[in-house]
Amino acid sequence: MGFHERMAARAEQPLETAVGSLDASSKLSLWRAWLEREAFPVVIAALYGGVLLLVLPGELVQDSWSTLVGGREIAGHGLPQHETLTVMAHGARWVDQQWLAQLTFYGLFRAGGYPLMLLAHVLLLFSAFALALVAARRRGGSPIAVFGVGALCFFVAPWAWQLRAQSFAPLLFVAVLFLLLEDSRAPSRRVLAVLPLLALWANLHGSVVLGALLVAIYGVVLLVERRGRALTGVSLVVLAPLATLCSPYAFSLVGYYRLLLVNPPFAGLVNEWNAPTPRPVTALFFLLAFVTVWAVGRRGSVLTTFERLALLVTLVSALHATRSIVWFGLTALVLLPVLLDRGERAGLRATPAARAGLALGLVALVVGMAAVAAARPSSWYTHLWPDRALAAVSVATRDPGTRVFASDRDADWLLWQLPRLRGRMAYDIRFELNTAAQVKRLQHYFARIGPDWQSAARGYDVIVVDRTEHERVRRSLLGHSRLRQIYVDHDIAVLVRRPS
Prior knowledge:
By secondary structure, the chain is mostly helical. The chain has 21 helices and four strands. The protein has helices spanning 3-11, 15-19, 24-37, 39-54, 62-77, 99-139, 143-153, 169-185, 194-201, 208-225, 230-243, 252-261, 283-299, 305-320, 325-340, 352-375, 378-381, 387-396, 408-417, 436-447, 467-480, and strands at 404-406, 462-466, 483-488, 492-497. A hairpin with a 3-residue loop joins strand 3 and strand 4. The longest helix is centred in the N-terminal third of the chain and has 41 residues, at 99-139.
């Protein structure tokens, strides 16, 4: 066997195994052979990372500010037990399930400001996407099939790009799914590593419930189909739900999960908690769902029982709530390529060297974009949030007795930028802390329902209105109440109540 044949054979092995003790020249040749073979997955991964870096300021949203405020609260006052930040929910029991994610992002901000925090967020999302591509290749999808499905899944859930506590969850989701799929093909005790991953996840984001469900389902599959692994199956079925309670809040999380997953009272206020409907932003999801159902119906026997169940569970979850589309997208990215695979002939029209050159060029471009982003001043990251509006609110709230009623988009931003508003803000995006009656009053306020729709904002001297969502509210307030406008731009307006 000649040198090139040996390199090709080694390139088909896992890279870390093939490299072994080769000399520098052989290692370089092996890396080149690997890159030529994996050029398409590398290209789609680089494009994904590049887009995340390109829209970096847009990833700083209300959930981001809430995450930072929560982290600051924990750093300064310890784990919260009762609400002290807002007026409406003051004294309510606060189970801060996402405490570790909040504290981590706050620590990143303290260490390196907005650049470090947002680049870490991008790294988390990019790692999840890249690991899903690796899992798809390990599952048997060809490079060109993985590229095609990756392109389809690229924009399937762009709202999941926002910096928030959920930023940690996609990587953990893919890691858990990867371990389960690997075990279904090559049984090993390594599958038990899903349990500490779930325990970590239980302190980062509530989507751990979905991860635990998949682990428990796999345990049941082992009990039914592989009775020789009954002990592993029982362990996964029993310990996966318990892992979701591995938190300082322990059994208090049961009520938290039930509130958010069974019948959240705030679903009418937050679109992500509602079932997706056909519209431009969800078009790719419905296309992906159609392709997945068609592919499973056509070649479903290629998948194992657990793989079909994983697709079904994540698809049903996505159809139930828009926020869950991201999990279906990642599952489809891992499992759909092997169903659509027709070989690599269509992708081999470009020479191996050209494919490798394109991949390397894109990787270099993304690294350069990351370096440029890291050198940007903080003002570049926050330029979508107007300093002049913040200054107007600051002036209007100098009196410590002045309270603020702000749209949910702006409430946590104001709490973060003006810490003295702690305890003076009407509410923020943690709607789960409010009662059903309070949430209904907010719904009536923003929809202007009833003759007394303004009652939710009664007693607040400063009103901050998000014009992109509530322009009609702003106009009604100016026309029918004792309010004057002290600041307005395209996105936000600040109104203050006139003295009696």
